[in-house]
Structure formats: structure tokens, C-alpha cells
Write a structure and sequence with these properties.
By secondary structure, the chain is an alpha+beta fold. The chain has 3 domains: 2-135 and 249-364, no CATH class; 142-231; 374-412, no CATH class. The chain has helices at residues 2-43, 48-82, 84-90, 95-137, 252-257, 259-263, 266-281, 285-304, 311-331, 338-364, 374-381, 387-391, 393-404, 408-412; strands at 150-152, 157-160, 163-166, 169-178, 184-197, 200-213, 221-231. Strands 1, 2, 3, 4, 5, 6 and 7 form a 7-stranded antiparallel sheet that branches. A hairpin with a 4-residue loop joins strand 1 (150-152) and strand 2 (157-160). The chain is elongated, with a radius of gyration of 36 Å. 29% of the residues are buried.
Length: 417
């Protein structure tokens, strides 16, 4: 009953520490990643929300293994300082039994990692890819700068306005557009209002003209209008359509089915290998890092004697090891041989943890010297202060010798004076 209470206490504390570590670290990393992907202008627009739906799971499955492992090792360091581990060991439980709550949390992190890499990320990564595509190819009203010729799609679209009238209305508008067939159109309008017409984003141009130029024609066709709707290549609009799929958007079943086809070509082989490591190997590091960290923690306790183990050094080692592996994984996009280095790191970490575990089990099974029985049994042997006690010393020695050889009857017999 008491041990069950202790196990629940350990599990709650480890879960709380893991949630705090993930929340404190992941939030700033996601913000920095969004800012680097979108830029400052798009970061403060509505585009940040679909991008967040993609970046959040990607960042989370990369940093979840080291953060959970560090939180678990740090928690066990605190348990050792509080005497909780001593209580568990005195109850007769093994070291592995004391580690079960932490290993259980690490196993849960592995399952969560696989859910992220195999189910969540393929369904959400397309949002970020669409946002980046729209930023390169389309006009987004939230990103337009006042009094500047805003260029999009390598200069194929140019947008200029003099000032904002309302939050979605601008004045003195100039728009230049080069169509795929070579036709060039120039719009001029007194006002423009950004709205949606059905599912398509665009702007209503008010009181202006449109000039059309075709290849081989010297004269332009000019048309005046009172109101005209011009669709925009804005994210969420009907005209933003990518004609390609990035590998991180491929569902897991299709990803595995394309293995032989992808490995046949060197360029796609690098992409497939990189993605397979992210989906299948990275989540396992949560359990592997935790196991290695706990073994190092146990080793430091045995070698340190009365000194507390240096938990911070173990946590720093886990972080450095993990981000070294992530760095090498990214190199597989340029050189496929980096995958062998990644496999070497996985195997080395596993072998070191296994070696430390076998060493720990071997030490725990070594026969230990029996505790001294003389101080405990002196009173049972009838030794008292004074000459009488000294006189009975020979009999006590024989009695204690009987205890050593298992003869308790002689040990319990009264001494001969």
C-alpha cells in the first residue's frame, strides 16, 4: 500500500517536471522558428496561425526526447536528495523497480512521438508549405507596405497604394500583373477594398481603369470601370494551388509504400532516409536517453559516496548528445552516408546503457560482508561492567563463535564465570 502511494507520487512529480520542461522550452523555440520562416511582417498577421499548426508538432517531436529524459533524471536527483529513493531501497525493492515510474513516462513520450511523426505532422505540415508558397507567389493584404511598390512572385505582381482608409480599404491603388500567357495588365483605382467573394480572396477596385498589353501589340486596350473584383494569390484564396507535395506531407502508409521507388534515385533516397529517421527513430530517443541518464545517475551515486550526484552534468550530456544526433540527421539530406553515423550513435548509446546496467546488476549481486555481531550480542552474552564482565569474556567469545557457526544455543547460554 505504501509502495503504491510512493509510485503514484513519483509518477506525478515526473509528469509535472516533464510538462514544465516541455512548456518552458518549446514555446520560445516555436516562436523563433515561426519568425525565421515567416519574417517579421507575416509573423504579426493572420498567417501565423496556420503556420503554428505545422511548426508546433514538428518542433515538439524533435525536442520531446531530451526534455523528457532531462526532467526524469532531474526528478530522480531530487528524490535522492529528499530520501525517497532510500526509503524505496530499504523496503526491499530493486533499482529497476524504483525507476519504473520514470521509464513509464519515457515510454509514454515514445508513443506520443510516434503519434506526432506518423499521424499529426503529415496532416498539418501542408499548412506551413501553403503559407510559404503564398508568401512567394501571392499578394497578402496584411503584408503590404504603405507607399512602397510591393513585389511578389519575382516581380510578376506589383502592388502600390498611398494610404489606408480603413483596416481593409486603401486609396490611390496601382497594380501590375503579368499573366502566364504573357499578357500584362495594369490596374489603377481610386480605392480598393479587400474582401472575399465566395471562397476566393481578392479586392474590389473602385473608380479606375485597366490597361492590357499583349506580346507583339504596340497599343494597349484601356477599359474604365466603376467596380471590379480582382482575385489575389492570398493564402486561403482559391488561386493558391500547389502542384507538388513535399515528403513530410505524405501519409505514413504511402510513405512506406514508396520506399523502393524513392531509394532508386539518389536525390529522393536522401529525402526518404531523412524523413524515415525523423518518423521512426527520433521518438525512440526518449526511452534511450532516459535509460542512459538513469544508469549514469546510478553510477555517479555509487562512485560519489556521500557527495550528491552531479545531475546537471548528466542532463547537459543528454542535451548535447541529442542535438548532435539531430545535426547529423540533417546532414543526410546532403550525404546519405550520414545515416550510418546516426545508426552508430544509436547503437553506441544503447551499448553504453546496457553495459552500465549489467555492471550495476553485477555489483548489486556481489556478496556483502556480514555486519559486526559483537556490539549487538554483547548484552545477550551477559557482559556487564566491572570485573565480573571481564571475567566472563572468555565465555562470551565462545558464545559469539557459536553465533558465527550458526550455533545459537551456545550463544544464548549464560557465560561461565
Amino acid at each position: 500500500m505504501v509502495l503504491g502511494v510512493i509510485d503514484r507520487y513519483l509518477t506525478r512529480q515526473i509528469l509535472l517536471a516533464s510538462l514544465i520542461a516541455v512548456g518552458v522550452f518549446v514555446g520560445p523555440v516555436i516562436l523563433v522558428s515561426l519568425l525565421s520562416h515567416l519574417g517579421e511582417e507575416a509573423f504579426y498577421s493572420s498567417l501565423v496561425w496556420p503556420a503554428l499548426a505545422s511548426v508546433g508538432p514538428m518542433i515538439l517531436f524533435h525536442v520531446l526526447p531530451p526534455l523528457v529524459a532531462i526532467a526524469i533524471v532531474w526528478s530522480y536527483g531530487r528524490f535522492a536528495a529528499e530520501g525517497v529513493l532510500t526509503t524505496i531501497y530499504l523496503s526491499g525493492r530493486s533499482t529497476l523497480a524504483a525507476w519504473l515510474p520514470g521509464l513509464g513516462v519515457a515510454l509514454g513520450a515514445v508513443v506520443l512521438g510516434y503519434v506526432l511523426t506518423c499521424w499529426v505532422v503529415p496532416r498539418t505540415s501542408g499548412h506551413l508549405n501553403d503559407v510559404l508558397f503564398s508568401l512567394r507567389r501571392g499578394v497578402n493584404p496584411a503584408l503590404l507596405k504603405v507607399g512602397v511598390f510591393n513585389q511578389f512572385d519575382h516581380g510578376r505582381e506589383v502592388f502600390f497604394f498611398r494610404k489606408y482608409v480603413k483596416h481593409n480599404e486603401v486609396s490611390d491603388v496601382f497594380v501590375r500583373e503579368v499573366r502566364p500567357d504573357g499578357e500584362e495588365r495594369v490596374f489603377k483605382a481610386r480605392f480598393a477594398v479587400f474582401e472575399k467573394q465566395g471562397d476566393e480572396s481578392g479586392m474590389f477596385l473602385l473608380n479606375g481603369t485597366v490597361q492590357s498589353f499583349r506580346n507583339g501589340q504596340a497599343d494597349a486596350r484601356v477599359v474604365a470601370y466603376d467596380r471590379m473584383f480582382v482575385p489575389l494569390n492570398e493564402y486561403g484564396g482559391g488561386r493558391v494551388k500547389r502542384d507538388y507535395t513535399i515528403i513530410d506531407e505524405v501519409p505514413f502508409s504511402d510513405f512506406l509504400a514508396d520506399r523502393s521507388k524513392a531509394l532508386a534515385d539518389p536525390s529522393t533516397a536522401r529525402e526518404w532516409t531523412h524523413e524515415s529517421i525523423n518518423r521512426l527513430a527520433i521518438p525512440l530517443l526518449a526511452l534511450l536517453h532516459t535509460w542512459l541518464g538513469l544508469e549514469l545517475f546510478s553510477l555517479s551515486r555509487n562512485l560519489g559516496g556521500r557527495r550528491p550526484p552531479r545531475v546537471w552534468l548528466i542532463c547537459a550530456g543528454i542535451a548535447g548528445l541529442h542535438f548532435t544526433i539531430i545535426f547529423i540527421v540533417e546532414q543526410t539530406l546532403m550525404d546519405l552516408r550520414a545515416a550510418w553515423v546516426v545508426g552508430g550513435f544509436f547503437l553506441s548509446e544503447l551499448m553504453v546503457a546496457l553495459f552500465l546496467a549489467l555492471r550495476r546488476v553485477g555489483i548489486s549481486r556481489e556478496p556483502k560482508a556480514a555486519p559486526p555481531v559483537v556490539p549487538v550480542l554483547l548484552g545477550m552474552a551477559g557482559v556487564h561492567s566491572g570485573h565480573a564482565g571481564l571475567a566472563g569474556w572468555d565465555g562470551n567469545v565462545h558464545a559469539l563463535a557459536g553465533v558465527r557457526h550458526g550455533d545459537f544455543s551456545s550463544a544464548m547460554s549464560p557465560p561461565r564465570v
